[in-house]
């Protein structure tokens, strides 16, 4: 299992062009959404698939 399942704040910051502090805020928001849906989350990391789903503007 070599493919990453989670992004770190540093990776989120680079992808979105924001500071790491703001990336942690984004991660907290997304993790709260996932937690509310019953998923297990890891503090300081965001699920790769959920992140990509929420930041891409495809319908």
What does this structure look like?
- By secondary structure, the protein is mainly alpha-helical.
- It has one domain (6-55).
- Helices cover 56% and strands 10% of the residues.
- It contains 3 helices and 2 strands; from the N terminus they run βααβα.
- It has helices spanning 9-16, 20-36, 48-55, and strands spanning 6-8, 45-47.
- It has a two-stranded antiparallel ribbon with strand order 1-2.
- The relative contact order is 0.20.
Beta-sheet strand percentage?
Answer: 5-15%
Biggest pleated sheet: 2 strands, antiparallel
Radius of gyration: 11 Å
Distance N to C terminus: 30 Å
Number of helices: 3
Class inferred from helices and paired strands: mainly alpha
Total individual domains: 1
- Compressed to H and E, one letter per element, the order equals EHHEH
β-strand number? 2
* Morphology call: globular
Mean pLDDT: 93
Strand line-up in the sheet with most strands: 1-2
**Uncertain stretches of 5 or more adjacent residues:** none
- Helix-residue proportion: 55-70%
Q: Top keywords for this entry?
A:
single chain; 59 residues; mainly alpha; two-stranded antiparallel ribbon; 2 strands
